[in-house]
Amino acid sequence: GQQLNQSPQSMFIQEGEDVSMNCTSSSIFNTWLWYKQDPGEGPVLLIALYKAGELTSNGRLTAQFGTTRKDSFLNISASIPSDVGIYFCAGRARTDSWGKLQFGAGTQVVVTP
Amino acid sequence: DGGITQSPKYLFRKEGQNVTLSCEQNLNHDAMYWYRQDPGQGLRLIYYSQIVNDFQKGDIAEGYSVSREKKESFPLTVTSAQKNPTAFYLCASMESSGNTIYFGEGSWLTVV
Fold it and tell me: Is the per-residue pLDDT at A111 higher than 80?
């Protein structure tokens, strides 16, 4: 199945810095989802986006549904050590059947004190 | 406490054995999924089920089998035909809108 293009693959940042990552697709999407996964655990939903241009925040996290409907962005502000983990995007293309999602490969975030 | 429960967390399989991973949800979701996760790769869909007694193959179904006899349960069997089964397996369910998916804690399977 198709996979989304997610970048960067990894990020090494200092505590207090902001983090940005993005996902792009080759087709128009109806839904973008962002998850965080800690080592050896299941992914936890952070933010869900359903409309083009939508900007949604969850604490220090902010995600946007791109206006072209082919991309999405996740920002983490003022990073702290517990932000360490893998963040990945998921989405449903307009042409996909009900319940079929595509996933990015993930962005590994490492926060140093 | 609502959620998706996977068991066991860690499982070791000998060559030639079939093993079954359990997945139970109490979210009243109709759709359930099994994904496989390998290091550095995105999630790959094994099987999914939209209603009881019905399921469809995903992108990498060979060597796996499932059943959906109850709405709450979607067990995955990794058969001896799966040549490279060592991976992290994730069960998920989807709410009725068909847009948002929730995951269990995952199960590690290792071939010894």
Answer: yes
